[in-house]
Amino acid sequence: GLTEREIIAGGRNLQMIDAGTVALAEARLRQSGVLAQLEAWAAEDAKSEGLGGRPAMLSFRAVLTALLLLAHEGSPLHLRRAALVLQYRLHPESRDLLDLPHTNNSFTTHIATSNRWYTNTVRAFHRMKRLMDPYPQELYTSKTYQQIQEILDTHDEERAEKYKARLDEFTRLFLHMTFMMQRREIRRASKQLDVSFDQTYVGTPTTKGYSRKNLK
Length: 216
Prior knowledge:
Elements: H1 4-9, H2 19-32, H3 34-45, H4 60-72, H5 79-88, H6 92-97, H7 110-130, H8 145-153, H9 157-180, H10 184-187
Helix pairs in contact: 2-4, 2-9, 3-9, 4-5, 5-7
């Protein structure tokens, strides 16, 4: 018959990820220098030297490792999937590596437990995003034309430029790590640039929106 784990999965992939694969993803993340850069930005943005609040359950290292694991297996980089990786798909040694709590997932409590893991994953991701988001305004509710105009009027161009530079550096560090992981003969095969990346704007798929011509 169906196992408890299959019932909890509900058709999703909850297969365990090999501990070696997790260790490799975590090592490459550290080698990229992204974690040190995030810590530096967080220290730069700190407004006080107080005791702060309760320590976060999930670190940037854990969330980014989960996203790298999803990319490795060709899965969509959704935060819901990342939360499932952290909750269900890691062996005990991998949990220790990422400083994650060991939890007993049972059928009777799996909904509430899964919601907590998802909430903590989302919070960790958005803490990281705030360190390099040029447009920090709230995005999850519809706004009137007047509210949109206020957002445009109060937009801090200087801050946006600074945080866009951070976002570019975040991207560059991952690309550089990926390039340096190649064999020496491949890295030195050409003295000229033959691979490039760009940040192409992808517009909203919906037809509704606003125009600067009719905001007033």
